[in-house]
Specification:
The structure holds two protein chains of two kinds.
Chain A (H helix, E strand, L loop, with lengths): L1 H19 L1 H4 L31 H37 L1 H16 L2 H11 L6 H15 L2 H15 L2 H8 L4 H37 L11 H5 L5 H6 L5 H23 L1
Helix pairs in contact in A: 1-3, 1-12, 3-4, 3-6, 3-7, 3-9, 4-7, 5-6, 7-9, 9-12
Chain B lengths: L1 H22 L2 E6 L14 H10 L4 E3 L6 E3 L2 E7 L4 E6 L13 H12 L6 H6 L7 E6 L2 E5 L32 E7 L3 E6 L18 E6 L3 H10 L4 E2 L4 H10 L4 E15 L9 H8 L1 H10 L2 H7 L5 E3 L23 H10 L3 E3 L2 E3 L7 E7 L3 H15 L4 E7 L1 H11 L4 E7 L9 H4 L18 H15 L3 H18 L2 E13 L3 E2 L18 E2 L9
Parallel strand pairs in B: 1-10, 16-17, 16-18
Antiparallel strand pairs in B: 2-3, 4-5, 5-7, 6-7, 8-9, 9-10, 11-19, 12-18, 12-19, 13-19, 14-15, 20-21
Helix pairs in contact in B: 8-10, 14-15
The chains are: A mainly alpha, B alpha+beta.
Chain lengths: 268, 542
Amino acid sequence: MKRLRQIALAILVAIFVISLLADFIAPASYATQFRDSLNLGSSWKFPLGTDDLGRDRFSRLLYGTRVSLSLGPAAALLSTLIAAVIGGTAGYIGGSAEQLAMSATDLFLSLPWFFLLLTARAMLPLNAGAWSSVIITFALLGLLGWPATARVACAGAKSLRQSDFILQARASGCHGLRLVMVHVVPNLAPVLLAQFWTLIPIYIIAEANLGILGLGVSEPLPSWGNLLRELGDYTVIMANPWSLAPAVLLLLVMSCFQIALSRMENSV
Amino acid sequence: MSRRLLFYLVLTWALLGNVFAQSGAELRFSLHAEPKTFNPLLASDEASETVRYLTGGVLIRVNRKTQAFEPALATSWKVLDGGRRISFELRQGVSFSDGTPFSAEDVAFTMRALMDPGLHSPVGDAFRPAGGSVSTAVSGTHSITVSFPSPVAGLERLFDQLAIESSKSPQKEKAVLGPFYLAEYQAGSYVLLRRNPYYWKRDDQGRPLPYLDSIRLDTQQSRETEMLRFRRGDIHLINNLDPEMFERLAAFSSASARDAGPSLESEMMWFNQVPTSPLPAYKKAWFGSQNFRRAISEAINRGDIVRVVYRGHGSPAVGPFSPANRIWFNQSLKPHPFDPQAALRRLNQDGFRKDGDTLKDREGHPVEFSLITNAGNKTRERIAAMVQQDLLQLGIRLNVVTLDFASLIERISQSFDYEACLLGLVNVDLDPDGEMNVWLSSADQHIWNPNQKSPATPWEAEIDRLMQGQAKAIDPKVRKADFDRVQEIVWEQAPCLYLVTKDALTAISPSVQNADPGVIWPQAFWNAERLRLATAGAGSEK
């Protein structure tokens, strides 16, 4: 099992590194339209063929992977940090602060987040460039995705607050920030880390869903979301099976995350 | 032995079942939404209008192929008093679908119902463009005159939308004069129309029409499922296909895929020219410049958009009316040419200069603007991506933003917080009088700068004058000259950049006989009364 996890992590790292080297590996710009080479199959010039605007699929997959794999973890980190502050503080302090924070969390959880995301996206300035739009999209995912993690963090902090070793630390004169930093945070970290790993694939899928609706990353920047939109046309898949590459890659990455995650949860 | 007998019995039963299934002469196709009403005077959505078209009897019909007015329930008519009155001689011996005789009283009854302010009829709105009431005078059992408070240009066309109701039938609006009548309706599932045994029209050999026994309209929202059902033979036709589906169908069955040529649907983009919009002054200056707008237009390769996005099933657009509108399209106009060098020269005239790969205005602002369009429309997103690439050649950065439709409408009609917009245009009315709410500067659909108190520019003032002139003129030549000039001004000033005119694409099963798809709605079934099904043919190729 440990070996399987190592393989999964190695695949994730390899994919991430390759995507970071897109500027050197990609045979063409992700935006260049070869308008006389539409919907081509695999060739030396276009290893994964071209899309319906004549753009090189391989280059777009490389850049799209970079976008989704870089910003998915960043958004997950943002959510986890917000959740740690709100949930962790509420759980540790307890009482009315906990009630207030958890009420706010419940309110956030009850909101139709998808529509909230659409509304927030529609209210943003229009003149954001493609890169700004992708950062905004993932930042919104990160900012709106903390409540469930906050609940977990709150429960973890609450159980720590009531634990014997914290009681003993208090009795020994350890208080305030020192108690939090030395005893609470290190014991809460594994829970938060597991949540962080869980959020990454969720955000990648969420961006893909937004992309399928045409509301994710703006043209011409690719992401897994807008690359997956092509698969809505089955004739494209029949004509060029290589167009399935983004779906295969997404499945592979999600599987690797799951394998890595299951091991991590076991260790927690 | 008994097993073999059983096999043959089952086989015979199956074959007979198949024969019976095909001998009912029932045409089947899909509605993409539930009809909101079966009252023909209230129909405004496509599903309701489809039922109205197939069941309603009208006084004058616009021939969907020739675009000429044809006698229907009125055998003749005369426009009087410069367009204030129209008198009809009605067809005799006609009955409603329940056998109730048709007379001029029914036309008067329908007009009264139409003009009832309590009904809020969308069809009625077209009959009172300048307010006031419409009156009728019955001068015989089959003669009637309809009077308007002021002259109406292209008066006859209004009666193509008006399905006559019976004043005496106990079935009220269910008694119809069209080729079919509403027989069954299962909410969320289907509408069944049966042949009207009293329909007045006959074919060239004197046989009664329609040929079909019934038409079944299944409610089917998904276009993909609709296509699968067509390919399986469950339905016989699809109206208004997108080019991608059309190509897919053509690869499967070339005989079923029918391209009728340029339609009345175009894609266009425009710049926000609202003076009170929250845009910086320098951008308002760009968008208000004729040179800037024309340069953008000339930098867009419309031919490539047709070839790449529309797979060749379209043509570069010229203006508000496409060549599909045979009477009113200005034949002397051609699409703006694709000429990036000429575009750059125009921009230079306005002080724009290239600084490396970036175009800058005379104050040094890099030329960058956003183009909004509705999310989920792949065709528009592809067009936007191509425009983006074309403008990049001039050093212009275009940010494509897809928004949900409600947000987009809010921005273009209320907050005016946008820079450029890409949307589609469908001209349902062939007559320019139906365009008054777009071209008058005071109109709310004057999309680039709506609701102006007085025309913001001399050319908009001239369009106002011409549009009002053509609305008052009754002489078709005068009206044509006025509207030709409007099209020329729009071409010169480019307040809207018309990009592509889509072809009218339909799917019609080879088993449907007499199909002759047109470019005007309802493209595939405009001659429904003459359609018939081949006895041996299923819906489509297997």
